[in-house]
Structures are given as C-alpha cells and as structure tokens.
Amino acid sequence: MAETKPNLYDLDLAGLETLVETLGESRYRAKQIWAWLYKQLASEISQMTSLSKALRTKLEERARLAVPAVIAAQESIDGETRKDLLSMADGEQVEVVLMRYIDRKTACVSTQIGCAVGCQFCATGQMGFRRNLTSGEIVAQVLHLERELQAQQQRLTNVVFMGMGEPFLNYDNTLAAIYRLMHPDGLQMGQRRITVSTAGVVPGIRRFTAEDIQVNLAVSLHAATDEVRSALMPINKRYGLDNLFKAVQEYIEKTNRQVTFEWVLIDGVNDTPEQASALAARIAGMLAHVNLIALNPTDGYPGQPSSPERTTAFATILEHKHIPHTLRLRRGTDISAGCGQLRSQTRTQVRPRAVR
Ligand code: SAH
Ligand code: SF4
After folding, report:
1. Is-contact 280 240, C-beta < 8 A?
2. Which CATH code is given to the segment(s) 8-62?
C-alpha cells in the first residue's frame, strides 16, 4: 500500500507553505524546502540541513519525499541513450529515458502507467491502462535524471512528454508538473524547451490552447485519412481528423507556435504516396513541421518499419509539396528505449547492463 502522508513533490509552493504553517513554522521555510527539492535536488528530508533538526523531524513525520527507486538502468551501446526503470511508492514502474545530443540533454518522461488509447503499434498501448501518475511522480522522473547528470556536472536542457501514457488524459497532473518544472525558484526549465505530445485528445488540445504558456505541442498523426488512422489509433473514431485539425489550427492561431506532427512510418500501411499526398494537403500552409520516425518493433504488432526506399519516396513527396519535415534518427532501440517501446517490465524482460 502506498503511504498516505503527502508526497512533498506533489505540492506546489502554496501547498508547501500551507503544510509548513500547519507544522507551526513560518511560511518562508517553504521556500527553503522548495530550494532543497528543486535546486539542491535533495533525495531525503534529512539532507535539508538549513532547516532545524526539529523541523526536519516534524516534516518526516507528516510528509514524505517519494524518490523513485531505480530498478534497472541501461545504456545504449553508442552511449547516447540511457533508460532507467523506476519504481513508484506503490510498486508500479515507469521508464524514463535520457537522450544525449551534442547541444542538449533531453528527458523523455511518462505521465501514466500504461495507456488507454490503445494505438496498435505502441508497447505502452499494448499493456493497457493501469493508473495516472501524480504530478510529483512526473516531476520525480525529471529530478532523477537531473541528479544523474549533476554527478557529471551536466544539466538537463529539454523535457518531452513522450514516455508512457497520454498526457492529455492526465491533464491536470501533467500541467501541474510542467508548472513545477518551470518554476523560477526551482529547476527553471525554459517553457520553449518542454514539449507535450498527444495522440489527438481534442478537449486536451483546447485546454492547452487556453493555457498562458509557451510549451510546445506535438501531435501524433501517423495517417492522414480517417480510414487508415482509425485502424491504427482507435482514438480517431472519437476525434476524427477534421475535428483534430480544427483544434490544432486554433492552437496555432492563438499561440502563433509551430506544431509538430509525428508520423511513424509503417511498411505498406501509412507510407504510401496516397498518404503522403493526403498529409501534404492537410497541412499545406500551416505553421507545422512533420517528424518522420522509423517504426520501432514491439511484440504485440506485426507491422514492419518502412524500407529506406519507401521512406525516401514518402519524404520526397513532402519535399515537392514544400512541407517542412525531418527524418528522425532511431536511437536507443538496442535497449528498447525508442518511442513506443516503453512499458513496465515487471516480469523477465529487463536485463540490466553495467552502467557507469
Ligand atoms: N501518448 C502520447 C505521447 C507518448 S507516445 C502520444 O501518443 O503522442 C510518444 C510517441 O511515440 C508518439 O508519437 C507515438 O506515436 C510514438 N510511438 C508509439 N509507438 C511507437 C513505435 N512502435 N515506434 C515508433 N514510435 C512510436
Ligand atoms: Fe498511448 Fe501514445 Fe502509445 Fe497511443 S502512442 S497507446 S496514445 S502512449
């Protein structure tokens, strides 16, 4: 059973102030605790040495710091990708991925254990939905990687919500986590360095449009006709393409921000010239960019990645129609840390490898 004491990571600053007051302390102590959590990256209340011993003891009695336990850690052979399996307080597990690029270090974090959306090709979808993560459990994944990097005098530069789960089906906790990452007295993560990816939950896109933040939006499109998209992504039966594009267009108009469309190329399914043309027709003139991604293999889906020839042919059609696009490199596939390969590996799949 999870403990019932509040997890300090689940509180915003106002919540922490209230907690401190109920302990009979003055509010400004909350700011000190906040700095221990999000600047010094403390992993235990006992480390907060600028607080009196008495206050630390009271805090330990009335609250907890739910730092996830590392169950397994894997590094890709090229050293560019690291995947850690983390255990939450109730034993549920999530994977968090660190991608190292020359100019940035990106954390790929999860918002749910499993996912109810059920996209055919996605390992998380294949495991079904287990539960939402709390805002603190989302933030704790970032803090975990930040601590890892700190040991090497490095820092995270970017956070993408592209791990397990659908962020907009756990909207409140995801946004609370984003605001905590951005907090000026904490991690101070730049808004433009945060990206939320959705499978197309239209009410979530609408709410996101109304937020007053500069966080990036990515939409997992994967098909440009309702027939093909509904077969791949059941959510399309609920929010069809016309509906989805209307919401995305409104987001662009309101925020003036470019939207990224993700497109996983699956051999013979969505890599046809018809799909490329339909995609180009849908997004011509939009402030949008297409990310073409190679399908990563998953146990529960027989589809294959598109061949280099078909990939090039698809990209060439976009090129001719002046649709901005990028072919995303595959990374981390040797440790199943590629997009859509994330799943809780409670059983036997995890073979931990030596990690520095
Ligand atoms: N639920 C959100 C965010 C998590 S999935 C969403 O769907 O957008 C993150 C990205 O990985 C999405 O673009 C998703 O479509 C993609 N993805 C899922 N399964 C994949 C696979 N097997 N190979 C490559 N990308 C995959
Ligand atoms: Fe869920 Fe995204 Fe996977 Fe679809 S692709 S099942 S929305 S995590």
Report:
1. no
2. 1.10.150.530
